[in-house]
Amino acid sequence: MPALIGKKFSVYNANTFASSFAQDSIYLYVGKVLPWDDDTSPPSVEDTPRYQNQTWDNMAGLVRVNRSHVSLGIKRNNWVSGTKYGRYHHANTNDDFYVLAGYSDRDVYKCLDNNGYSGSTSKPHHKNLGVTREPDGYAWKYMYTIPDTQFKRFATANVIPVMTDRDVASRSKPRIILHLPIDANNSSGFGQYYRGLGFVNNSYTSLASNATIATTVSANTSTNELRIVADTGLAIQANYYNNSAFYITSGKSQGTYRRIIRSKAGDRPADTDVGYYQNTSSNLVLSSSVSNIANGDTFIIGPIVNVTDNNVDGKGFLALAKTNRYGNIVSIDVSSVGFGYANGYANVTINGDYHPTSNNLNDGTGAQVELVISPSGGGHGYNPANELGAKYVIVAPETTIPRNHETGKFVGYGNDIRQIGLLRNPVDIYTGDQAYKSAYDLRTTLYFAHPTSLTFSEDQRVYNSLAEGTETASGLIFSVCGSGSSQYLSLVDVSGQFANGDIIYNRLGDTAVISSASLSQHYYPIDTGVTPKNAVINGGVAKYTGEILYHENISPITRRLDQKEEFKFVFEF
């Protein structure tokens, strides 16, 4: 049976995994001190119980991965001049319609119009809450900015974190038409992003664009008539602008939008209704009156764009198409975004004007416009994870660096690590419950009677019996700690149980006696000011408990006393 698993399923799975870091106890583990056969080429990982048990034996410590160490992520698309970017579409399943740009290259923008899929040459850097059309014809919607700290923690060469800007989200609206892209270049036009032909055309509209209102008649509210006097370059034919839009671009009424019911021919009585303008006067009858309009205010006349498909839910959308002097549409400015739209395919009409047949004028044609609806979940920028298809989870934990042992945390200085991974819900060895601390030292620590100087070395294996095969406990030396007569050992890969009084041996004849007699010499005033309570301190988590979610074999990382590692794991869903 046909089925669809869309990108939102991937986003859901990614979000579920990211959320688990707040609900479960998930830890970063590190370990494996002994070299690989070839340290430059670690071996493949096996997904078997035996291999996972061996991984447990190699573990040296755990560090809790908090939700703050996890981010949803999207593919990294750096803005590059000349690149052809896709545009947002409710049916677009690609991930090429957004970019990382801005002055600091930390801003994310969604493309709403790609100038007929031409190359982008104007880098977006605005942060306004509307839609900005750049000189190259691209229209970009600002989504969010990645703070430097978050960028450093989560960004990689291929993935960037996704987040929500509160201001953008608070002003976004679902199921509106925020922007209308013009789909394709038209060969009849002039310039690389002019569309269609014959819309309120020729030099008249070029000169009328942003022309100045010199004298107005606003008192005639019964006819809603507006008189424009002076050489504004308006068309000489009456009725030329019928059914077009009149949009005021400056003054107290800036942003006011009216439909032109009828464009009259001026003051000469004989010409009022026959279709001719005087050069010095033109009257526009508007759909409703305009208040607070004054000399010097500017305006634009252009085609009205609206949705005329009766099958489309939603209402209230209205826009103005801007034209050049050749009658091509340059862009579309939305005046009213409407509400309640749900169908992505509809008839969008561009009513340029109504021309009487006797004038031998043509209506505009050839501008292909598609209805693009904002996301239903809240609008553009309300939920960038869903909108941009956040199918990645970036996990960026770090090791802790306490200054000494026996704080119950993993310090792990010294030696190398060659295995890292994520462990879910191990068991605290002292409480018997799910682990909860910020870090756990998994090594076994052995203390000795002093004064003595240890002759053991890292990576040697030690036993509690000299005769091979008779030992009841053994372990691999992770590090020789302390100095002088206050040295002690930390072990990994411990088998069996060491006890107070055991004599430990390596196979080279070196020995030492585990003893609690000198525990008072191991005093740590820097952190806790306490001494060890026992001669043998075991790791804080029960071995082989929990689930290994992820494992990786790596080339060795050599650790210093003050070293803290920062890791990044990227998971794709």
Description of the molecule:
The protein has 573 residues and is mainly beta. It folds into four domains: 111 residues, no CATH class; 120 residues, no CATH class; 158 residues, no CATH class; 95 residues, no CATH class. It is built from six helices and 29 strands. The protein is rod-shaped, with a radius of gyration of 37 Å. It starts with 6 loop residues before the first helix and ends with a strand.
- Low-confidence segments, given as residue ranges, are 202-210, 214-221, 266-281, 353-362, 403-408
What is the overall pLDDT average? 80
The count of DSSP E runs of length 2 or more, i.e. the number of strands, is 29
Tally of helical segments? 6
Q: For the CA atoms, what is the radius of gyration?
A: 37 Å
C-alpha termini separation: 23 Å
In brief:
By secondary structure, the chain is mainly β.
Key structural traits:
9-stranded antiparallel sheet; 6 helices; mainly beta; 4 domains; 29 strands
Topology of helices and strands:
Blueprint: H1 7-23, E1 26-31, H2 49-58, E2 59-64, E3 70-75, E4 98-101, E5 107-114, E6 131-133, E7 138-145, H3 148-154, E8 159-161, H4 166-171, H5 202-208, E9 211-212, E10 225-229, E11 244-248, E12 257-264, E13 281-286, E14 298-307, E15 315-323, E16 329-339, E17 348-351, H6 384-387, E18 392-395, E19 416-424, E20 439-441, E21 444-446, E22 461-463, E23 473-481, E24 488-496, E25 503-505, E26 511-513, E27 536-537, E28 547-558, E29 569-572
Antiparallel strand pairs: 1-2, 1-19, 2-20, 3-8, 3-18, 4-5, 5-7, 6-7, 9-14, 10-13, 11-12, 11-14, 12-13, 14-15, 14-17, 15-16, 18-29, 19-28, 21-24, 21-27, 22-23, 23-24, 25-26
